[in-house]
# Entry
Amino acid sequence: MRAWVIRSTGGLERLELAQVPDPPSTLRSTDVRVALRAAALNHLDLFVVRGLPHEYQFPHILGGDGAGVVAAVGPDVRSVRPGDRVMINPGIADYTCEYCRAGEHSLCLSYRLLGEHLPGTIAEAIVVPEPNVAIIPTLQAPLSWAEAAAFSLVTLTAWRMVVTRAQVQPGETVLVWGIGGGASLAAMRIAKLRGARVIVTSSSDEKLEHAKRLGADATLNHRTQKVSQEVRVLTEKRGADVVIENVGEATWDESLRSLRRGGRLVSCGATSGPKVGIDLRRLFWYQWSILGATMGNLAEYREIVRVLGTGELRPIIDQVFPFSEAREALGRLDRAEQLGKIAVSIAE
# Structure
Protein backbone atom coordinates (compact mmCIF):
# COMPACT_ATOMS: atom_id res chain seq x y z
CA MET A 1 0.00 0.00 0.00
CA ARG A 2 0.98 3.65 -0.30
CA ALA A 3 1.83 5.67 2.81
CA TRP A 4 3.65 8.83 3.86
CA VAL A 5 6.73 7.81 5.81
CA ILE A 6 10.02 8.97 7.22
CA ARG A 7 13.16 6.82 7.13
CA SER A 8 15.04 9.11 9.51
CA THR A 9 14.21 12.18 11.58
CA GLY A 10 14.91 15.77 10.62
CA GLY A 11 12.96 18.32 8.58
CA LEU A 12 9.91 17.99 6.37
CA GLU A 13 12.18 17.02 3.48
CA ARG A 14 12.40 13.61 5.19
CA LEU A 15 8.79 12.88 4.25
CA GLU A 16 8.24 10.61 1.28
CA LEU A 17 5.32 8.85 -0.34
CA ALA A 18 6.34 5.20 -0.44
CA GLN A 19 5.12 1.68 -1.02
CA VAL A 20 5.06 -0.17 2.31
CA PRO A 21 3.78 -3.61 3.36
CA ASP A 22 0.05 -3.91 3.89
CA PRO A 23 -1.15 -4.34 7.50
CA PRO A 24 -1.17 -7.99 8.64
CA SER A 25 -3.70 -10.02 6.68
CA THR A 26 -4.56 -12.24 9.67
CA LEU A 27 -6.51 -10.24 12.22
CA ARG A 28 -6.49 -10.93 15.93
CA SER A 29 -9.88 -11.67 17.49
CA THR A 30 -10.76 -8.05 18.27
CA ASP A 31 -8.92 -6.29 15.44
CA VAL A 32 -10.54 -4.09 12.81
CA ARG A 33 -9.01 -3.32 9.41
CA VAL A 34 -9.98 0.10 8.04
CA ALA A 35 -9.57 1.24 4.44
CA LEU A 36 -8.71 4.87 5.13
CA ARG A 37 -10.42 7.67 3.25
CA ALA A 38 -8.88 10.68 5.02
CA ALA A 39 -6.34 11.58 7.68
CA ALA A 40 -5.98 14.77 9.72
CA LEU A 41 -2.79 16.42 10.92
CA ASN A 42 -1.68 17.36 14.42
CA HIS A 43 1.38 19.14 15.82
CA LEU A 44 2.46 15.71 17.03
CA ASP A 45 3.21 14.82 13.41
CA LEU A 46 5.77 17.63 13.25
CA PHE A 47 7.38 16.48 16.50
CA VAL A 48 7.60 12.92 15.14
CA VAL A 49 9.33 14.11 11.97
CA ARG A 50 11.86 16.11 13.97
CA GLY A 51 12.53 13.30 16.41
CA LEU A 52 11.10 12.18 19.74
CA PRO A 53 13.02 10.36 22.48
CA HIS A 54 11.92 6.84 21.73
CA GLU A 55 12.73 4.17 19.17
CA TYR A 56 11.27 4.37 15.67
CA GLN A 57 10.65 1.42 13.40
CA PHE A 58 11.64 2.81 10.00
CA PRO A 59 10.04 3.38 7.60
CA HIS A 60 7.64 5.04 10.02
CA ILE A 61 4.12 5.95 8.84
CA LEU A 62 2.88 9.33 10.05
CA GLY A 63 -0.58 10.39 11.19
CA GLY A 64 -2.75 9.92 14.28
CA ASP A 65 -6.22 10.86 13.10
CA GLY A 66 -8.14 9.03 10.40
CA ALA A 67 -11.50 7.85 9.09
CA GLY A 68 -12.56 5.25 6.58
CA VAL A 69 -14.56 2.13 5.80
CA VAL A 70 -14.31 -1.10 7.76
CA ALA A 71 -12.75 -3.66 5.42
CA ALA A 72 -12.54 -6.70 7.73
CA VAL A 73 -13.02 -7.61 11.39
CA GLY A 74 -11.72 -10.26 13.77
CA PRO A 75 -14.05 -13.07 14.86
CA ASP A 76 -14.96 -11.49 18.22
CA VAL A 77 -15.75 -7.99 16.93
CA ARG A 78 -19.39 -7.05 17.51
CA SER A 79 -19.66 -3.25 17.40
CA VAL A 80 -18.78 -2.75 13.72
CA ARG A 81 -18.91 -4.79 10.53
CA PRO A 82 -17.46 -4.53 7.03
CA GLY A 83 -18.85 -1.51 5.16
CA ASP A 84 -19.36 0.67 8.25
CA ARG A 85 -18.06 4.25 8.07
CA VAL A 86 -15.83 4.77 11.10
CA MET A 87 -13.44 7.22 12.68
CA ILE A 88 -10.41 6.22 14.70
CA ASN A 89 -9.40 7.02 18.27
CA PRO A 90 -5.58 7.09 17.97
CA GLY A 91 -4.81 6.24 21.60
CA ILE A 92 -4.11 2.50 21.82
CA ALA A 93 -4.22 0.90 25.28
CA ASP A 94 -3.69 -2.76 26.17
CA TYR A 95 -7.13 -2.81 27.91
CA THR A 96 -5.79 -5.20 30.58
CA CYS A 97 -3.55 -3.22 32.97
CA GLU A 98 -4.71 -1.82 36.34
CA TYR A 99 -5.41 1.62 34.85
CA CYS A 100 -7.42 0.16 31.98
CA ARG A 101 -9.43 -1.97 34.40
CA ALA A 102 -10.17 1.23 36.34
CA GLY A 103 -11.38 2.90 33.13
CA GLU A 104 -8.35 5.20 32.76
CA HIS A 105 -7.10 4.01 29.39
CA SER A 106 -4.88 7.02 28.63
CA LEU A 107 -2.86 6.15 31.77
CA CYS A 108 -2.31 2.60 30.49
CA LEU A 109 1.18 1.26 31.20
CA SER A 110 1.45 0.39 27.49
CA TYR A 111 -0.35 3.44 26.08
CA ARG A 112 0.74 4.27 22.53
CA LEU A 113 -0.39 6.69 19.82
CA LEU A 114 -0.86 6.00 16.15
CA GLY A 115 1.70 7.92 14.15
CA GLU A 116 4.02 8.31 17.15
CA HIS A 117 4.69 4.88 18.63
CA LEU A 118 2.76 2.87 16.03
CA PRO A 119 2.25 3.06 12.25
CA GLY A 120 -0.10 5.93 11.49
CA THR A 121 -3.04 6.95 9.38
CA ILE A 122 -1.56 8.78 6.38
CA ALA A 123 -1.81 5.50 4.52
CA GLU A 124 -4.30 3.48 2.55
CA ALA A 125 -5.14 1.07 5.39
CA ILE A 126 -4.64 0.43 9.10
CA VAL A 127 -5.49 -2.22 11.70
CA VAL A 128 -6.62 -1.11 15.18
CA PRO A 129 -8.38 -2.74 18.16
CA GLU A 130 -12.18 -2.70 18.15
CA PRO A 131 -12.42 -0.16 21.05
CA ASN A 132 -10.53 2.33 18.88
CA VAL A 133 -13.16 2.70 16.18
CA ALA A 134 -16.51 4.49 16.36
CA ILE A 135 -19.24 4.56 13.75
CA ILE A 136 -19.51 8.05 12.27
CA PRO A 137 -22.75 9.61 13.55
CA THR A 138 -25.53 10.27 11.07
CA LEU A 139 -26.24 14.00 10.78
CA GLN A 140 -28.68 15.94 8.63
CA ALA A 141 -25.68 17.39 6.82
CA PRO A 142 -23.40 14.31 6.68
CA LEU A 143 -19.84 14.62 7.92
CA SER A 144 -17.25 14.64 5.17
CA TRP A 145 -14.37 12.20 5.40
CA ALA A 146 -12.10 15.11 6.32
CA GLU A 147 -14.41 16.18 9.16
CA ALA A 148 -14.66 12.63 10.49
CA ALA A 149 -10.87 12.24 10.36
CA ALA A 150 -10.33 15.56 12.13
CA PHE A 151 -12.58 14.84 15.10
CA SER A 152 -11.00 12.36 17.48
CA LEU A 153 -7.60 13.44 18.80
CA VAL A 154 -8.20 17.13 19.46
CA THR A 155 -11.79 16.74 20.67
CA LEU A 156 -10.93 13.93 23.08
CA THR A 157 -7.92 15.88 24.37
CA ALA A 158 -9.96 19.06 24.82
CA TRP A 159 -12.84 17.23 26.52
CA ARG A 160 -10.51 15.68 29.07
CA MET A 161 -8.90 19.08 29.74
CA VAL A 162 -12.08 21.12 30.03
CA VAL A 163 -14.60 18.65 31.44
CA THR A 164 -12.69 15.91 33.26
CA ARG A 165 -9.58 17.66 34.58
CA ALA A 166 -10.59 21.33 34.96
CA GLN A 167 -14.27 20.52 35.61
CA VAL A 168 -15.31 23.85 34.10
CA GLN A 169 -18.58 25.15 35.54
CA PRO A 170 -21.23 27.51 34.14
CA GLY A 171 -20.26 31.15 34.60
CA GLU A 172 -16.52 30.53 34.98
CA THR A 173 -13.94 32.35 32.86
CA VAL A 174 -11.65 30.20 30.73
CA LEU A 175 -8.53 31.45 28.93
CA VAL A 176 -7.53 29.44 25.83
CA TRP A 177 -4.19 30.06 24.14
CA GLY A 178 -3.54 29.78 20.38
CA ILE A 179 -7.05 29.61 18.97
CA GLY A 180 -5.89 28.66 15.46
CA GLY A 181 -5.08 25.11 16.54
CA GLY A 182 -7.57 22.26 16.53
CA ALA A 183 -7.28 21.42 20.25
CA SER A 184 -7.69 25.07 21.25
CA LEU A 185 -10.75 25.49 19.03
CA ALA A 186 -12.27 22.33 20.48
CA ALA A 187 -11.52 23.51 24.03
CA MET A 188 -13.19 26.85 23.36
CA ARG A 189 -16.32 25.21 21.98
CA ILE A 190 -16.54 22.65 24.79
CA ALA A 191 -16.11 25.38 27.40
CA LYS A 192 -18.94 27.31 25.76
CA LEU A 193 -21.12 24.17 25.88
CA ARG A 194 -20.36 24.07 29.61
CA GLY A 195 -21.69 27.62 29.99
CA ALA A 196 -18.32 29.31 30.52
CA ARG A 197 -17.12 32.70 29.37
CA VAL A 198 -14.13 32.14 27.07
CA ILE A 199 -11.20 34.45 26.33
CA VAL A 200 -8.98 33.31 23.44
CA THR A 201 -5.60 34.39 22.14
CA SER A 202 -3.79 34.36 18.81
CA SER A 203 -1.08 36.35 17.07
CA SER A 204 -3.44 36.74 14.09
CA ASP A 205 -6.27 39.27 14.12
CA GLU A 206 -7.93 37.31 11.31
CA LYS A 207 -8.03 34.18 13.46
CA LEU A 208 -9.37 36.18 16.39
CA GLU A 209 -12.19 37.57 14.27
CA HIS A 210 -13.08 34.06 13.17
CA ALA A 211 -13.00 32.89 16.78
CA LYS A 212 -15.53 35.60 17.67
CA ARG A 213 -17.85 34.27 14.99
CA LEU A 214 -17.46 30.79 16.50
CA GLY A 215 -18.45 32.01 19.95
CA ALA A 216 -15.43 33.49 21.73
CA ASP A 217 -16.50 36.10 24.30
CA ALA A 218 -13.25 38.08 24.20
CA THR A 219 -10.13 37.94 22.04
CA LEU A 220 -6.52 38.98 22.71
CA ASN A 221 -3.61 39.30 20.30
CA HIS A 222 -0.76 37.85 22.35
CA ARG A 223 1.77 39.40 19.97
CA THR A 224 0.64 42.98 20.69
CA GLN A 225 -1.11 42.71 24.07
CA LYS A 226 0.01 41.63 27.54
CA VAL A 227 -2.37 38.74 28.06
CA SER A 228 -2.29 38.60 31.86
CA GLN A 229 -2.98 42.33 32.18
CA GLU A 230 -5.87 42.16 29.73
CA VAL A 231 -7.34 39.12 31.48
CA ARG A 232 -7.27 41.05 34.77
CA VAL A 233 -9.10 43.93 33.11
CA LEU A 234 -11.70 41.60 31.61
CA THR A 235 -12.29 39.89 34.97
CA GLU A 236 -12.28 43.00 37.21
CA LYS A 237 -8.78 42.09 38.50
CA ARG A 238 -9.89 38.62 39.60
CA GLY A 239 -8.19 36.47 36.93
CA ALA A 240 -9.32 33.45 34.94
CA ASP A 241 -10.79 30.43 36.69
CA VAL A 242 -9.14 28.08 34.19
CA VAL A 243 -6.26 28.41 31.73
CA ILE A 244 -6.04 25.90 28.86
CA GLU A 245 -2.35 25.52 27.95
CA ASN A 246 -0.68 23.66 25.11
CA VAL A 247 2.14 26.07 24.25
CA GLY A 248 4.60 25.58 27.13
CA GLU A 249 7.67 27.74 27.61
CA ALA A 250 6.54 30.78 25.64
CA THR A 251 3.26 31.27 27.52
CA TRP A 252 3.73 29.56 30.90
CA ASP A 253 4.49 32.64 33.01
CA GLU A 254 1.65 34.61 31.45
CA SER A 255 -0.70 31.68 32.04
CA LEU A 256 0.12 31.67 35.75
CA ARG A 257 -0.21 35.45 35.99
CA SER A 258 -3.64 35.15 34.39
CA LEU A 259 -4.97 32.71 37.00
CA ARG A 260 -7.20 33.74 39.89
CA ARG A 261 -6.57 32.55 43.44
CA GLY A 262 -7.56 28.88 43.53
CA GLY A 263 -7.51 28.72 39.72
CA ARG A 264 -6.72 25.68 37.58
CA LEU A 265 -4.16 25.44 34.79
CA VAL A 266 -4.45 22.43 32.47
CA SER A 267 -1.64 21.52 30.06
CA CYS A 268 -1.73 19.01 27.22
CA GLY A 269 1.29 20.11 25.20
CA ALA A 270 4.53 22.02 24.88
CA THR A 271 4.74 23.27 21.31
CA SER A 272 7.21 26.05 22.21
CA GLY A 273 9.33 23.91 24.54
CA PRO A 274 8.95 21.63 27.58
CA LYS A 275 11.00 23.40 30.26
CA VAL A 276 9.12 25.82 32.51
CA GLY A 277 9.68 27.34 35.93
CA ILE A 278 7.44 28.14 38.86
CA ASP A 279 7.76 30.10 42.10
CA LEU A 280 6.48 27.56 44.62
CA ARG A 281 5.57 30.34 47.03
CA ARG A 282 3.00 31.64 44.54
CA LEU A 283 1.76 28.10 43.90
CA PHE A 284 0.92 27.38 47.53
CA TRP A 285 -0.07 30.93 48.48
CA TYR A 286 -2.58 31.25 45.65
CA GLN A 287 -3.55 27.57 45.95
CA TRP A 288 -3.38 26.94 42.23
CA SER A 289 -4.04 23.52 40.71
CA ILE A 290 -1.70 22.56 37.86
CA LEU A 291 -3.10 19.61 35.92
CA GLY A 292 -1.79 17.45 33.11
CA ALA A 293 -3.98 15.86 30.43
CA THR A 294 -3.29 13.38 27.64
CA MET A 295 -6.02 12.14 25.31
CA GLY A 296 -8.86 10.46 27.26
CA ASN A 297 -10.55 7.20 28.18
CA LEU A 298 -13.12 5.14 26.29
CA ALA A 299 -16.06 6.58 28.25
CA GLU A 300 -14.97 10.10 27.31
CA TYR A 301 -14.56 9.05 23.68
CA ARG A 302 -18.08 7.58 23.59
CA GLU A 303 -19.39 10.80 25.10
CA ILE A 304 -17.78 13.11 22.55
CA VAL A 305 -19.07 10.89 19.72
CA ARG A 306 -22.55 11.15 21.28
CA VAL A 307 -22.27 14.94 21.45
CA LEU A 308 -21.11 15.02 17.81
CA GLY A 309 -24.24 13.07 16.95
CA THR A 310 -26.37 15.92 18.39
CA GLY A 311 -24.81 18.30 15.87
CA GLU A 312 -22.37 19.94 18.30
CA LEU A 313 -18.57 19.96 18.04
CA ARG A 314 -18.48 19.43 14.27
CA PRO A 315 -14.81 19.87 13.35
CA ILE A 316 -13.65 23.13 11.77
CA ILE A 317 -11.71 22.26 8.61
CA ASP A 318 -9.02 24.67 7.46
CA GLN A 319 -8.00 22.95 4.24
CA VAL A 320 -8.04 19.52 2.60
CA PHE A 321 -4.97 18.44 0.62
CA PRO A 322 -4.80 15.56 -1.88
CA PHE A 323 -2.84 12.50 -0.77
CA SER A 324 0.05 13.39 -3.04
CA GLU A 325 0.49 16.75 -1.23
CA ALA A 326 0.74 15.59 2.39
CA ARG A 327 4.17 17.24 2.71
CA GLU A 328 2.67 20.59 1.69
CA ALA A 329 -0.12 20.03 4.22
CA LEU A 330 2.41 19.57 7.01
CA GLY A 331 4.21 22.67 5.81
CA ARG A 332 1.04 24.72 6.29
CA LEU A 333 0.71 23.35 9.82
CA ASP A 334 4.39 24.06 10.51
CA ARG A 335 3.93 27.70 9.47
CA ALA A 336 0.87 28.01 11.76
CA GLU A 337 -1.25 29.29 8.88
CA GLN A 338 -4.28 27.16 9.73
CA LEU A 339 -7.51 27.98 11.52
CA GLY A 340 -8.91 24.59 12.40
CA LYS A 341 -7.82 21.19 11.16
CA ILE A 342 -5.76 20.36 8.10
CA ALA A 343 -6.79 17.10 6.44
CA VAL A 344 -5.38 14.82 3.75
CA SER A 345 -7.76 13.06 1.36
CA ILE A 346 -6.61 9.48 0.80
CA ALA A 347 -9.41 8.03 -1.33
CA GLU A 348 -13.01 8.82 -2.20
About this structure: The mean pLDDT is 96. DSSP finds ten helices and 18 strands in the chain.
